[in-house]
């Protein structure tokens, strides 16, 4: 197969590219001018210069391709306006899907997010049937991903063979920015995690998430969505695993959400006064932490064969990669 990948220079996208190559597929990747291409360096990947707003580069990249993996997205909790999220995540998705419709691709996998789904107040794991609403999304990233998934669903209704995947919280090899979750690991390894809030995450190895993308292309049902997740853990449990893996002391201080919320306004103020400072906490992130993002990947396991690497192993992979690449001692 010949595959076209948007977001191939990113964390999940880079893992998808590697998995495609390992499976023997030919890969083209959309690369924005000036992007950090370390995820693609040394790989036999045809790089197509352009962006999500460039219809010509999208159609050029997709020409002759069987599969398209739309992984590119703006994922951040600081430093970007709502219009940037909408332009990249919603209108960018529309441009990709329109180009795929024009090029008559055989299958398009749209990388959505668990951010589009509802969660259960009793902390039981939610499935693909947990209905989220736009009003219930917190912050511009979640709102834009919700709207982007609606666009993908609309195009599936028009006949484009779209399969939607909803990654949970991936960790592992290649998180070079790093992502907000990866930053937790880096901060812990550098002794900058002084406390934790009461929240829950679904930890997945990025290699499993990448495998889930290929499985969705091969076996996924058009118009369906699949949670690509792993193990449900509290943040305290994640930090305790990191302590065991890394040999660093555990984090023992539990911070009430009210205290975290108050500090977030201070941290944001410091960031506005000093552009080089990125806030560790923002009001948006503290609001999100009040939700336990526990999910059930059973549908993807049953229907696609999604692998399930234990969280301990996924976190160990992340720790070893960050240390090997100079992010932590």
Q: Please, how many helices?
A: 11
CATH architecture of the domain at 2-168 and 205-230 and 294-309: 3-Layer(aba) Sandwich
Please count the beta strands (DSSP E, at least 2 residues each).
10
Give the class-level CATH name of the domain at 2-168 and 205-230 and 294-309. Answer: Alpha Beta
Q: What's the end-to-end separation, in Å?
A: 41 Å
Q: How much helicity do the residues have?
A: 40-55%
Q: H/E order of the elements? A: EHEEHEHEHEEHEHEEHHHHH
In CATH, the topology of the domain at 2-168 and 205-230 and 294-309 is named: Rossmann fold
- Extract low-pLDDT stretches: none
Mean of residue pLDDT values = 96
The spatial strand order of the largest sheet comes to: 3-2-1-4-5-6-9
| C-alpha-based Rg, rounded | 19 Å
User: What is the quaternary state of this protein?
Assistant: single chain
Largest sheet: 7 strands, parallel
Proportion of strand residues? 5-15%
Name the CATH homologous superfamily of the domain at 2-168 and 205-230 and 294-309. Answer: NAD(P)-binding Rossmann-like Domain
- Label the structural class: alpha/beta
Give the overall shape, derived from the CA principal axes.
globular
